[in-house]
Amino acid sequence: xxxxxxxxxxxxxxxxxNDSVATAPLIFVxxxxxxxxxxxxxxxxxxxxxxxxxxxxxxxxxxxxFAEQMxxxxxxxxxxxxxxxCHLAVSWxxxxxxxxxxxxxxxxxxxxxxxxxxxxSDKFPVAVLQNGxxxxxxxxxxxxxxxxxxxxxxxxxxxDFFNKLEDQPTKHQAFQKMxxxxxxxxxxxxxxxxxxxxxxxxxxxxxxxxxxISVRQLNIFLEEYDDVPFDALRYLTGQCNYGGRVTxxxxxxxxLSILNNAYGPATCSEAKYKxxxxxxxxxxxxxxxxxxxxxxxxxxxxxxxxxFGMHDNVDISKDLQETKLLFDSCLATMGTASSSGGDGQxxxxxxxxIAEGILDKLPN
Length: 364
Description:
The structure is a single chain. This protein has 364 residues and is of the alpha/beta class. It has 16 helices and 5 strands. The chain has helices at residues 3-6, 13-18, 37-46, 64-77, 93-101, 126-131, 143-151, 159-162, 169-191, 208-224, 230-241, 249-262, 265-269, 289-297, 314-341, 347-361, and strands at 26-29, 54-58, 80-84, 113-118, 133-135. It has a 5-stranded parallel beta sheet with strand order 2-3-4-1-5. The longest helix is centred in the last third of the chain and has 28 residues, at 314-341. The two termini are 21 Å apart.
């Protein structure tokens, strides 16, 4: 298929914003391991919507009236409102639908935008979903794409942050190496989820906020201390930032073992520290941001199981799980098609009709 279909494009909030209008909400469809709020806050900042011009609230019990008040004020003044976790406020969803139905060009300021975040839920108003601009930002597949996204996302992609210790060469080199190890660890713990119980006993929703706070702590500790405080960094990262999500004792032991392998003294001291026996995944020389991005792009698209410390047969379990998910999704689509046919058509005929309709709309 080529790189266009195998490499997901970078998440572009600006493009979605340009496709939107003031009277239709922008909806983030959440998935485990994805947290769009940091990117939304940065985009709001660059767009000039800071302070009182951007308000966010996490929905839950009793938050509906406050959210309604915020929307009413924002649509008059032309500011932005973000309602997080709509799936948790099931009882308030009819009220949200009514509010969105009342939006029109006469009673809404042209700069107003309503941002919604929600996990997939059958309680979410269909009318709001159909009229809104829908976005999803799932964690990328594979170690290579996961690490690449980490390096292309704030704060690592911010050159002022990345080169903050540039006037102290020893610390700057340590930061670059430790940062690479941390991103590898982050990718590893997310990818292990795809192996089912062989990866984690309980699937955890490690996300970008865990990496973000760990990266900032690494930068602060290196700036404050003459020697790298490895024990403190590993405790904060393994027991607090990531370990705070872990409830199973064996999963915690596994998490700390992975962290010790990728995020320790050897990562800094050895010239090409190997994360796995083959040496495919190793720490490259600290030669700047662009050199690390180029190195990540050269990594294999499909990672071998030995990168996870697993046997080659573990891929069988993962492939079976992915195949089952694919077939279940196809069957779910066929079930929906057959129920919407209404005139006794076979699901295959309905799908053929939809496909022909799409082809007719495409330019020659």
